[in-house]
């Protein structure tokens, strides 16, 4: 009974808390201060990939600075609903503030300047692949199995409950039985087993991440800087200058370097006189050159590409070592969660007694048959 009371008290405390969190998270979407959008082009790769869903937040244009990624209506477009998400590379003050923008994957800046009145919001989060969900739902078979069938099962279950509870006598019996089962049911966590899974998973993923780490920490950039990836996984590097406004002066301050397993290799052959055989030269592309102003103090974070690039950039801005720690923690949590049935136990008091009674009855029945 004490466990039941504790459980009920915990539920009473947790449910309102969850409700408040959900309401606070959803209100901005209904009021329009936050808005989800789907990425359609590759102009901001690899930070945002086509098919990703982005969340933008309303912002005062006067608070924007160089390096921010903004959502805006292109001034040269006839479509009022057209939206572009690009990075601010420069700005001009005047009667109305204007922004020069550029897509991270584009070679040239946009051929227009964005007035402050055209700014819709600022990018705050990226959800990988979430933009494909609306497209998937358009396929009849997928829509049938992911929407129609689950909805049908829920409706049938609700109809069954309505019919069951329409009879007061049956309803009381069902509720009484459910309460009995609830009293006899208890949940427990196998602490030692859970700790073992967390430890083993943590060590495995720590080994994977550490084995594929690059340079992390503080550095002073030269005019030309080489970042290599001799590891087995692709890497994301993020360079954050001490002066945030100088970020766009670094070409390029973040990127993805393929692993030696995924290296793009091309062959070149030197020009030689006729009849002379020259050896082929193989060039590997698992490194990148970063051009920056001389003696720029900055921090660098180079981690395996196992989290979305936007997440890694956001974490690296806080601390260069944080992306690696989050990668280890995130995948340790996921693997432990997948092993949930092995460390979480549900037990019903009285089941063992029933099993013992059944075994005794079976044993008596066998003895009776032998006597006969």
Automatic annotation (TrEMBL):
Protein name: Signal peptidase I
TM ranges: 12-31, 142-163, 194-214, 321-343
NCBIfam families from the UniProt entry: sigpep_I_arch (TIGR02228)
EC number in record: 3.4.21.89
Any one Gene Ontology BP term: signal peptide processing
This protein's UniProt keywords: Hydrolase, Membrane, Transmembrane, Transmembrane helix
Organism listed in the record: Methanosarcina siciliae HI350
Pfam families: Peptidase_S26 (PF10502)
Subcellular location: Membrane
Residues in Peptidase S26 domain copies: 17-89
One GO MF term attached to the UniProt entry: signal peptidase activity
């Amino acid at each position: 009974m004490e466990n039941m009371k504790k459980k009920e008290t915990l539920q009473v405390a947790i449910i309102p808390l969850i409700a408040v969190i959900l309401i606070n998270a959803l209100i901005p979407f209904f009021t329009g201060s936050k808005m989800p959008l789907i990425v359609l082009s590759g102009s901001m790769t690899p930070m945002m990939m086509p098919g990703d869903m982005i969340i933008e937040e309303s912002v005062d244009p006067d608070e924007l600075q160089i390096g921010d990624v903004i959502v805006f209506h292109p001034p040269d477009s006839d479509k009022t609903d057209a939206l572009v998400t690009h990075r601010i590379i420069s700005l001009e003050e005047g009667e109305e503030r204007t922004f020069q923008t550029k897509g991270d994957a584009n070679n040239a800046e946009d051929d227009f300047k964005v007035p402050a009145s055209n700014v819709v919001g600022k990018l705050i989060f990226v959800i990988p692949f979430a933009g494909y969900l609306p497209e998937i739902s358009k396929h009849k078979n997928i829509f049938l199995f992911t929407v129609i069938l689950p909805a049908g099962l829920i409706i049938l279950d609700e109809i069954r409950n309505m019919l069951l509870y329409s009879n007061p006598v049956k309803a009381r019996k069902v509720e009484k039985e459910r309460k009995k089962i609830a009293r006899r049911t208890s949940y427990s966590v196998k602490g030692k087993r859970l700790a073992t899974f967390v430890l083993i998973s943590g060590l495995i993923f720590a080994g994977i991440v550490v084995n594929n780490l690059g340079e992390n920490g503080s550095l002073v950039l030269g005019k030309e800087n080489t970042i290599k990836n001799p590891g087995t996984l692709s890497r994301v590097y993020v360079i954050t200058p001490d002066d945030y406004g100088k970020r766009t002066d670094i070409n390029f301050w973040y990127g993805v370097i393929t692993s030696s397993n995924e290296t793009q290799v091309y062959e070149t052959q030197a020009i030689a006189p006729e009849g002379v055989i020259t050896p082929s030269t193989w060039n590997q592309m698992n490194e990148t050159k970063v051009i920056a102003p001389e003696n720029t103090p900055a921090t660098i974070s180079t981690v395996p590409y196992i989290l979305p690039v936007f997440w890694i950039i956001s974490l690296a801005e806080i601390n260069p070592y944080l992306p690696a720690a989050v990668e280890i923690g995130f995948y340790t949590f996921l693997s432990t969660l997948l092993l949930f049935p092995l460390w979480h136990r549900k037990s019903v008091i009285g089941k063992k007694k029933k099993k013992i009674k059944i075994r005794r009855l079976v044993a008596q029945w066998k003895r009776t048959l032998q006597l006969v």
